[in-house]
Amino acid sequence: MLVAVVLAADPYSDALLSLKSDIIDDSKSLDDWKVVSEGNISGKILACSWSGVECNENSTIVTSLNLCMKNLAGKLPGKQLGVLTQLVGLNISQNSFSGELPGNNRYEKPGSFDALSNSFSGPLPVEVTELESLKVLNLAGSYFDGPIPSSYGSFKRLEYLHLAGNSLTGKIPPELGNLKTMTHMEIGYNFYEGNIPWQLSNMSELQYLDIAGSNLSGSIPRELSNLTKLESLFLFRNRLTGPIPWEFSRIVPLTDLDLSDNLISGPIPESFAELKNLRLLSLMFNEMNGTVPESLAELPSMETLFIWNNFFTGTLPKSLGINSKLRWLDVSNNSFIGSIPPGICTGGKLFKLMLFSNNFTGNLSPLSNCSSLVRIRVEDNSFSGEIPLKFSDFPDITYIDLSKNRFTGGIPWDISRALKLQYFSVANNPELGGTIPENIWSLPFLQNFSASYCNISGNLPPFRSCKSIVVVQLRMNNISGSIPESISDCHSLEMINLGSNHLTDNIPKELASLPSLVFVDLSHNDLVGSIPVEFGKSSSLVLLNVSYNDISGTIPSKKVLRSMGRTAYIGNPELCGKPLKSCSNPINGKKLRTATIFRCILQSSAAYWDNCAVKKLEWEPKRVKVASEFITQLGSARHMNLIRLLGFCYNKQMTYLLYDYLPNGNLAEKLRMQRDWGMKCRIMIGIAKGICFLHHDCNPAIPHGNLKSSNVIFDDNSEPRLANFGFKHLMQLIKGTTPASSRLGTGESNDIKEELYKDIYNFGEIILEILSNGKLMNGGASIHIKPKDAVLREIYHETKPNPPIHCKKK
Question: The pTM is what?
Answer without folding.
Answer: 0.72
